[in-house]
Amino acid sequence: MVKTEYEIRHEEGLHARPASDLCKEANRFKSSVTISKDGEDYDAKSVLMVLCMGAVKGDIIEIRAEGEDENEALKAIVEAVES
Q1: Is pLDDT of 2 > 90?
Q2: Sign of dihedral through CA atoms 57, 45, 53, 48?
Q3: Which residue from 26, 27, 34 is spatially nearest to 63, judged by alpha carbons?
Q4: pLDDT tens digits, residue range 10-57?
Q5: How much of the chain is helix, strand and coil, in % rounded to 5?
Q6: Is 57 helix (H, G, I), strand (E, B) or coil?
Q7: pLDDT at position 36, please?
Q8: Closest Cα to residue 43, out of 29, 30, 33?
Q9: Active site residue 10
Q10: Among 10, 15, 37, 75, the one annotated catalytic
């Protein structure tokens, strides 16, 4: 398992478009991808779960990937959140 913390920098947080982009990236990989915020875990492969997280600018989230392509998955997810 690999993980990293990330601070949300978008003014609107993880609204519909970035959440959708994040999920598309997560679904490209075989590894499970989980995002944690305030002690709650959310499946990064589900747009609904990412939106339910309610991440806003300044929130710190933890992104975890576990599986055969976990390193590539983690890197891609971080890049998706940053773009």
Answers
A1: yes
A2: positive
A3: 34
A4: 888 888 888 999 999 999 999 999 999 999 999 999 999 999 999 999
A5: 40, 30, 35
A6: coil
A7: 97
A8: 33
A9: no
A10: 15
